[in-house]
Automatic annotation (TrEMBL):
Organism: Nocardioides jiangsuensis
Superkingdom assignment: Bacteria
Keywords of this entry: Hydrolase, Protease, Serine protease
InterPro entries in alphabetical order: Class_I_gatase-like, Peptidase_S51
Family: Belongs to the peptidase S51 family.
Keyword Transport among record annotations: no
Pfam families in the cross-refs: Peptidase_S51 (PF03575)
Protein name: Type 1 glutamine amidotransferase-like domain-containing protein
Length: 220
C-alpha cells in the first residue's frame, strides 16, 4: 500500500499535497473508508469520539472531514462475523483507508482477526492514511509506553515498515522530546518522533518526512 503516517491527520498544505499525490486525483473524487476500531481499545476514547470521527465533526476536519466523494465505515470487529465475500469488495473499491488513533495493539489484534492484515499486500494502489495508532500499527512495535489495551500480549504490531513512531510530540506533557528519547532508547529499531504538523510518506519502501512542524529521527 501507499502509506501516509501522521500524528494528527492532514493538518497543513504540505501533507495535503502529499496525500493528493498518493491518491493521484483530487480528494473530492476519492472514496474513503474510515476505520474507528483502535478507539475502542483506548480508555480516552468511546462512543462520543467514534461518532465525531464517523460524522466528520470539526475536530476531524483534517481527516474524515477533508471532503471525500464518499465516506463509509469499516469496523474491523464486525468483519469476522460477516464473511470476506462481503467486506473484501468494500475495501478493494475504496481509494483510501482512513485509520484513526486509539490503541495500536488493539488495532493490530483486529487487523489480524478480521483478515485485513492479510489483504494489504494485494492493495498496491490503495492509500492508507493513519492518525496516531493508525500509523503506529504499521511499525514493528510501539513500546510499552503506548500500550493502553489491558489484553495486549506485548507491544508488537504489523511491521509493514521498519521504523517506529512516537506521535503527538509536544502536544501533551507526557510527549516531550525527553520522553521520546527515553522511549527510543528501548525500541530497538530506527524511530521518528513527530508532531501534529508532520507525516511520514512511504511508497515502495522509500521513506519521506513531510513536515511544517517538528520531528526527530532516532537511530540509523
Amino acid at each position: 500500500m501507499k502509506l501516509l503516517l501522521t500524528s494528527g491527520g492532514v493538518t497543513n498544505s504540505s501533507i495535503h499535497s502529499a496525500l493528493v499525490q498518493l491518491l493521484g486525483k483530487p480528494i473530492a473524487e476519492c472514496h474513503a473508508l474510515v476505520v474507528p476500531t483502535a478507539q475502542w481499545g483506548h480508555p480516552m476514547c468511546g462512543p462520543t469520539s467514534v461518532r465525531g470521527l464517523v460524522a466528520a465533526e470539526p475536530t476531524w476536519q483534517h481527516f474524515s472531514g477533508l471532503g471525500w466523494a464518499s465516506l463509509g465505515v469499516l469496523e474491523l470487529t464486525a468483519l469476522p462475523t460477516i464473511g470476506a465475500e462481503r467486506w473484501v469488495p468494500w475495501v478493494r473499491e475504496a481509494d483510501v483507508l482512513l485509520v484513526d488513533g486509539g490503541d495500536a495493539t488493539y488495532l493490530y489484534h483486529w487487523m489480524r482477526e478480521s483478515g485485513l492484515a492479510d489483504l494489504l499486500p494485494s492493495l498496491p494502489d490503495t492509500v492508507w492514511v493513519g492518525v496516531s495508532a493508525g500509523s503506529m500499527v504499521m511499525t514493528p512495535r510501539i513500546g510499552d509506553y503506548f500500550v493502553e489495551w489491558p489484553s495486549a500480549p506485548d507491544d508488537r504490531t504489523l511491521g509493514v515498515v521498519d521504523f517506529s513512531i512516537f506521535p503527538h510530540l509536544d502536544l501533551f506533557p507526557t510527549n516531550t522530546l525527553t520522553h521520546a528519547e527515553r522511549w527510543a532508547a528501548d525500541i530497538g529499531v530506527p524511530a521518528y518522533a513527530i508532531d501534529e504538523q508532520t507525516a511520514i510518506k512511504v511508497v515502495d519502501g522509500s521513506v519521506e518526512v513531510v513536515s511544517e512542524g517538528q520531528w526527530t529521527k532516532f537511530g540509523s
